[in-house]
Amino acid sequence: MTDLSLVRHIVLDMDGTLYSGTRLFAQTLPFLEGLRNLGIGYTFLTNNTSRSKADYVVKLRKLGIEASKSEIYTPAESTIAHLRSSLPHAKAVALVGTPSLVQEFVEAGFTVNWDAPEVVVVAFDTTLTYERLCRAAYWINTGLPFFATHPDFVCPTDEPTVLVDCGSVCACLTAATGRLPIVFGKPNPSILLELSDRLHLAPQQMMMVGDRIYTDIKMAQGAGVPAVLVLSGETTEAQAADMTQQPDLTVADIGILGKLLADAQGACKS
């Protein structure tokens, strides 16, 4: 097991880890308070790019979690950072995304341009139209750089429906064009590596906590960041036991993790 006394910052998946749908887990608020008391920072991480960081602040506050935009990270940030570094002159984007995501790109200095784009970016677009899908396929077919904010095929929901996510839309576009996107978001380890650089912390001083093996845990292991699997969401105990590459720690919920952290950091200070 990883040395919990070294942890200075925790990256937290949200749905399945802190809450389920609109139901906040009873352990969540005490856990966050415990991190603050220990002087451990935290970042809320989601693959869902249908909402802006400001939207997530509102959502978390409705659940009783006080948060600021600086404490929230979405793959939109990774996508924007990559565009700035690898294609610094590309400012016109054909963006398959919600109005709130469009606003994030505009605030970052980009323009959404479907007539003469320089790149195509696909996100989780709950406002998607057939016309926009076809236009995206056209520009991808011309050879423009093609990016996806994250790979999820569906978005979790408590409602009796299937929320078709970014990965499914990209699969459609790949079928139509024969091209695959460059994909950001979990499990791409760049998210954790960027946070590590931003926070000036070694990977061993961070921790990734989540309920999905193929996104949260895979990303942490790819970045060399200690991985904690919680069994409060998607992954069952049997599935966890069958994992070829085990996480650094598996716990029933974040409440147990909070107690382990308090014990380890308290012992270190005594």
Question: Explain this structure to me?
Answer:
It is a single chain. With 270 residues, the chain is an alpha/beta fold. The chain folds into two domains: 4-47 and 186-269, Rossmann fold (3-Layer(aba) Sandwich); 75-183, 3-Layer(aba) Sandwich (Rossmann fold). The protein is 40% helix and 18% strand. It has ten helices and 15 strands. The protein has helices spanning 28-38, 53-63, 75-86, 99-107, 130-141, 166-177, 190-199, 213-223, 237-241, 254-269; strands at 9-13, 19-20, 23-24, 41-45, 72-73, 92-96, 111-112, 119-122, 146-148, 154-155, 163-164, 182-183, 206-210, 227-230, 249-251. The protein has a six-stranded parallel sheet, sandwiched between helices. It is globular, with a radius of gyration of 19 Å. It starts with 8 loop residues before the first strand and ends with a helix.
List the helices and strands and how they pair.
Blueprint: E1 9-13, E2 19-20, E3 23-24, H1 28-38, E4 41-45, H2 53-63, E5 72-73, H3 75-86, E6 92-96, H4 99-107, E7 111-112, E8 119-122, H5 130-141, E9 146-148, E10 154-155, E11 163-164, H6 166-177, E12 182-183, H7 190-199, E13 206-210, H8 213-223, E14 227-230, H9 237-241, E15 249-251, H10 254-269
Parallel strand pairs: 1-4, 1-13, 4-5, 6-7, 6-8, 8-9, 9-12, 13-14, 14-15
Antiparallel strand pairs: 2-3, 10-11
Helix pairs in contact: 1-10, 5-6
